[in-house]
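Aim 2 progress update. The chain analyzed this quarter is reproduced below.
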Amino acid sequence: SKPAWNGWGAGISNSRMQSGAAAKLTDAQIPNLKLKWAFGFPGANAVYGQPTVVAGRVFVGVDSGYVYSIDAATGCVYWSFRADDGVRSAVSVGQSRDFPRARSFAPTLTVTTEMARDQGLVYFGDLKANVYAVNATTGAQVWKVHMDPHPSARITGATQLFEDKLYVPVASLEEAAAVDPNYQCCTFRGSVSALDAFTGRKIWQTYIIPDAPKAVGRNAKGTQLFAPSGAGVWNAPTIDPKRRALYVGTGDAYSEPAAKTTDSIMALALDTGKVLWSVQDTANDAWVVACLRDTKENCPKDAGPDYDFGSSPMLVDLRNGKSLLICAQKSGYVYAHDPDQKGKLIWKTANFSKPPEATGQTVWGGTTDNSAAYFGLNSGGIVSLALDNGERRWFSDIKPAQGRKGGHDAAISSIPGYVISGGWDGVLRILSTRDGKVVWSFDMAKEFKTVNGITAKGGSMGSAGPTIADGMIFAGAGYPGVQNGVNGNVLLAFSAQ
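Predicted structure tokens:
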């Protein structure tokens, strides 16, 4: 019954907006927020995962592969579970009711029915494309499913839980493997799957590119090439119960010609995985990391700009009764698509920066309070856009802490009246949604005394955003490779109490 931030977007619409009743932070408390506790992750070099808050516990994963269950009030740890590889997605938490039915489908469950009955289940993916369900109370593994046999497959986007089904996006790092001119580029295809939440049984799987890759020639080194490929799904699926649909943004192609479903917003049927519609916002975007290197043998001849959709579409309801999908792309453009008109484009913003930096301009996503949408920009600053037409309401030009890299790649979050953002510079900031003025800030790029006695330091926020629940704000500080290679390994909890 306690206030929660469950999963990536604080709800199935992925708005990343916490209600006032759940946030429990008043205007008077915001300027008085103070660090309540810090938790150090042993052996970690990056805090990849986003904190999930459910039932007074915080669940979060790190690059070492460990997922932790931590008391939200004190920072004391209940349990830790080690996955096969790093966990950078947010955790989803659900009930494990009807567990006897699960046993009949999956007799190889690793814990007994008695251990799991009436307990919550915690779901997450790792960087080897495994999905796990573990007992929320004990941390014992209930089931594990390998989602894709491709050696480069990984799960970066959070799973989404709805109606006893777990929806899983799959992406890959094959773009990086293609740097090697002897690598047979490329054969991965992004996908979304629906699993039975109690057993892990696969109900359906839909590949973003419907056609399997085939041999299409050789590169200058004589290495066999394949196409089509790419279209990884880096973001958490958005659920639309009214239209019985699931929405995702897709990545670029790795081989040319780029498939029509790359760099697109797609709608899949919740119950079957059937593609309902797909709208491509950037065509002919075939790109791999080799395009940035001297070894360009696997770089497509007409290389694209690498304009993935890294962030989840945000489903919003306007005051006129219409709905929109607000979608931010690495290009710096934000698009509004109509889910009632097969994704018809309603508006598109101007590019926030020309050209955007190589890592993208709007990468991991924004937030919306159903009157405006807010996005952090890689080039620095935060922008507010009107939902009905995409016009700029305000822009806050945020200067980084002295001597540090600026920008806001990490997803931002909101509560009524405020947006909360963690920057490349390691500073956590709260801005007014009225005018974009910073009303509170905290420098996380320093060493902390931790409740568990682990030596810990903070740093940048680079993908996962801050989460808010029950009068507290939680932020993992320590995204790698930003501030002169200085990483971090700390979870910080703030409160006005």
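The longest helix spans residues 99-105. The chain has four helices and 37 strands. These observations will guide the mutagenesis experiments scheduled for the next reporting period.
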